[in-house]
Amino acid sequence: MLPPGLLRFRRVLLVVLHAFLIPVGYYAAFALRFDFQLPPDHARLYWATLKYVLVIRLVCFGLFGLFRGWWRNVGMTDLVALVKAVLLSTGLALAALFMSGNLAGMPRSVLALDAVTALFLFGGLRFGVRAFREERLTPWRANPGKRTLIIGAGAASERLLRELQRDGAAGMTPVGLVDDDPEKAGMHIHGVPVVGTTDGLAEAAMRLSPQLMVIAIPSATRDQMRRLVDACLGTGIEFKIVPSIRELLDGRAQLGQLRKVQIEDLLGRETVELGLDGPRAELQGRTVLVTGGAGSIGSELARQIAGCGPSRLVVLDQAESPLYFVHLDLVHAHPGLRIEAVVADVTDQGRMERVFAACRPDFVFHAAAYKHVPLMEHNVVEAVRNNVLGTLCVAEMAARFGAQKFVLVSTDKAVHPSSVMGATKRVAEQVVLGWPALARSRTDFRAVRFGNVLGSDGSVIPLFRRQLAAGQPLTVTHPEVTRYFMTIPEAVQLVLQAAALPEAARRIAMLDMGEPVRIVELAENLVRLSGLEPYKDVPIVFTGLRPGEKLHEELMSDREETVPTAVPKIRVVRTFEPDRNTLTAGLDRLGAAAAVGDLGDSLTALCELVPECVSPLRERGAGSPAAAD
Fold first, then answer.
1. Dihedrals φ, ψ of 186, to 5°?
2. Residue range 526-532: mean pLDDT, rounded
3. Nearest to 620 by CA among 365, 429, 290, 378
4. I want to staple 278 with a disulfide (CB 3.0 to 4.6 A). Which of 118, 140, 299, 500 is the partner?
5. Nearest-angstrom CA–CA distance, 546 and 305
6. Integer distance in angstroms from the first to the last C-alpha of the chain?
7. Do residue 385 and residue 518 come from a single domain?
8. Is the domain of 150 the same as that of 293?
9. C-alpha radius of gyration, the chain, whole number
């Protein structure tokens, strides 16, 4: 390693070193050709031709960047560059010697031997430096830490081992690897042996006595992950997981940093990675407004949008304190971006008019909504005001002030709704896709339909975790209740992709969320991940379905159909919308009922606008409302 003062001259020193070694390799080629008995005539030929080989090879090495890399990190890319530089310089040297007349009397094998010696000399030097450094600086040899058994012997475990070699603060000493592939048994990765298969994890743990186990199989299916987690739990040894590539790219984790296995890792399907290339191209340099920006989805939307390079980001919410902290985080993460926090109620038409007049957004992401099903059953008018009339207000402002696109965040509870919340969100979909004034505008209106979002405010997983931390039983409404689940990053990627997809215009976009998941299984897995036994250490109590809840959610009604898009995991819904006169009359009645707080009329108007709503809501709308604002 160079002294700090010489690092600034590193490239010059590398050029000097190569200028010294090129003649050495060239002379070695002559010596090998004549069995180290170099005739005087060929010794003179060596000196006469050296200048051509030296200059050409130095130039080619420079062109291929061989003076720029760090030898401690040399890899296959550097080796390929070296091979190209040597072959090109040998060919050019041959041409130069021919043109200068020095090729006469030159043994043809000398240039071939020179190419081979150059590859061995410069390649060996680079990889020798790396090997020497890794051997000397491997932390687990110098500073032994926790004995660690790594589950997986693929690319992820190789990256982890390489990172552990460089990071002395990791505090881990790898003692072995296990893998699904039995053919890898007996192999070594960075000096660490593959000691068996994952089926023999318990046996390997007994033999090696690790203090920590690390799951490093990002390609594992959810069933495989459940099996691995169960096997780890069975050993009683602490275990963690290597972060996914998405977590590394999003900055939620760092290479070599491990985390505990989370309930999201055990979903019944693979995590969907949609990417943000299309949305980034759309949002870059634009003004973007996010309503409900202090909520779980809205705040993550704002964070992802900020990373797409808009010229201005306006985050709006009526919850002052959460909005303050979201704004603080955004400003800290993106100091060069113009970010504004606006405290406002989306149902306040005058306030919305002033906000839109001031910022004139190109894109509007409408995530402001009341979403808690049982709570909205007892606050019907507020649900109507916020979810329906608030959506109408924001959408009309987007059209009036010339927004390019408007994206509504909706829910699968809008399909055959049995709750006030679901019905209001279905009407909100009708508003953005069918309201006459919006249909005539130049604004491109579209919607996104979610399942349950894991980890969002008020969702089931945070509730389970609070109950677990308090030593309380986990409460599940029904042993057979199922829900479609998606993670917050999936939800946000879906919203942003829906804003960019041409097929989603005037349509509802929907993510392929796989099969629905039984809530009781989530509860059981969460208990196991806490090192406890469900029903034995932690009771799981069934409380019965709450008002407005369904046993099983649906993704679309019998009057809807889906069609594929350019993004394989996203489909758009062709939905039935009421005629404009029916929608206008229904919204007029709904607005009038909400203005005077008439519960019965509000429910009746909702059911008229959502004819596919299921019987409990219709019965309440018929004159026996159980809710009270």
1. 90, -15
2. 79
3. 378
4. 500
5. 36
6. 73
7. yes
8. no
9. 33
* Residues 129 and 145 placed together within one structural domain of the fold: no
Query: What's the pLDDT tens digit per position in 386-410?
Result: 999 999 999 999 999 999 999 999 9
User: Token pair for residue 231?
Assistant: 């096997």
Rounded to whole angstroms, the Cα distance separating 199 from 203 reads 9
pLDDT one-digit tens code per residue, 118-127 = 888 887 777 7
What total number of domains does the chain contain? 3
At 93 the pLDDT is: 84
Domain boundary among 137, 164, 193: 137
Structural contact between residues 573 and 504, judged by C-beta atoms closer than 8 angstroms:
no
Q: Locate tokens 């560059």: which residue?
A: 81
Taking alpha carbons only, the member of 417, 390, 356 closest to residue 591 is 390
Q: CA 24: distance to chain centroid? A: 51
275: in domain: no
Provide the residue type at 170 as one letter.
Answer: A
- Shared-domain flag, residues 151 and 83: no
Q: Report yes or no on 607 lying in a domain.
A: no
DSSP class of residue 270? Answer: P
CB atoms within 10 A of CB 310: 24
Q: Are residues 526 and 459 in the same domain?
A: yes
Which conformational region is residue 245 in: left (phi greater than 0), alpha (psi within -120 to 50 degrees), or beta? alpha
- Predicted TM-score (pTM) of this structure: 0.69
Residues with Cβ within 8 Å of residue 464, at least 6 apart in sequence: 474, 522, 523, 526
Q: Which of 111, 11, 112 is nearest to 61 (CA)?
A: 11
Domain that holds residue 472: 282-557+564-574
What's the rounded mean pLDDT across residues 3-16?
62
Q: Hey, how many other C-beta atoms are within 10 angstroms of the C-beta on 592? A: 13
76, with CB counted inside 10 A (0-12, 13-18, 19+), is exposed
Residue 627 lies in a domain: no
Question: Average of pLDDT values for 169-196?
Answer: 84
Residue 60: which of 28, 79, 82, 29 has the closest Cα? 82
CATH of the domain at 179: 3.40.50.720
CB within 8 Å of 385: residues ≥ 6 apart: 347, 594
Inter-helix orientation angle 222-235/201-208, to 10°: 40
